[in-house]
Amino acid sequence: MRNVIGRGGALFGFVLLLGLSTAWAQTGQTFGEIVGRVIDTQSGALGDVIVTLSGPAMIGPRSTTTTERGVYQFPAVPPGTYKLTFELVGFTTFVREALIVPVRTTVTVEVTLKLAAVEESGGRRGRRRQHQHHSEGRW
């Protein structure tokens, strides 16, 4: 009698464990992921790039910073359409819009940032002027 209960209990425990692990795996499959690398025009990795992810499927934007190898990652992204913004002082800002992230999919976005141009003005004194970007979107 003892062996029957022991086997039955072990079988019940195994089935319970299998059911819980399946339920856990299913909940983990409702997200996608965004990964990538940021380089300059000379194919050099760019570290410390601020990468911002935003979209209607999120409560608010999420940001991360690239590693010294230029790598970034956004795990557990709800399925939807997103915008990615890449910013680094001295480089032009790059924006990738309409990025679709399906369920259980890793989306890779590789980006090349260009050096920002310094504009020169040929005014009376030939002064060099550097324009700054203000929050209203004006120069």
Put the structure in a nutshell.
The chain has one helix spanning 2-27; strands at residues 32-40, 50-54, 62-65, 71-77, 80-87, 94-101, 106-108, 111-113. With 139 residues, it is α/β, with parallel strands linked by helices.
Explain the overall architecture:
The chain is α/β, with parallel strands linked by helices and 139 residues long. Helices cover 19% and strands 34% of the residues. The protein has one helix at 2-27, and strands at 32-40, 50-54, 62-65, 71-77, 80-87, 94-101, 106-108, 111-113. Strands 1, 4, 7 and 8 form a 4-stranded mixed sheet that branches. The chain has a 4-stranded antiparallel sheet with strand order 3-2-5-6, with no helix packed on it. The model is unreliable at 10-28 and 120-139 (pLDDT under 50).
Write the CATH fold name of the largest domain.
Immunoglobulin-like
Give the CATH superfamily of the largest domain.
Carboxypeptidase-like, regulatory domain
| Structural class assignment | alpha/beta
The number of distinct structural domains comes to 2
Question: What is the CA-atom radius of gyration, in angstroms?
Answer: 25 Å
Count of individual beta strands: 8
Helix content: 10-25%
Mean pLDDT: 78
The level-1 CATH class of the largest domain: Mainly Beta
From the spread of the alpha carbons, the general shape counts as elongated
Report strand %: 25-35%
Task: Characterize the biggest β-sheet.
Answer: 4 strands, mixed
What is the terminal separation in angstroms? Answer: 85 Å
Low-confidence stretches: 10-28, 120-139
**N to C succession of SSEs:** HEEEEEEEE
CATH architecture call of the largest domain: Sandwich
SS summary, helix count: 1
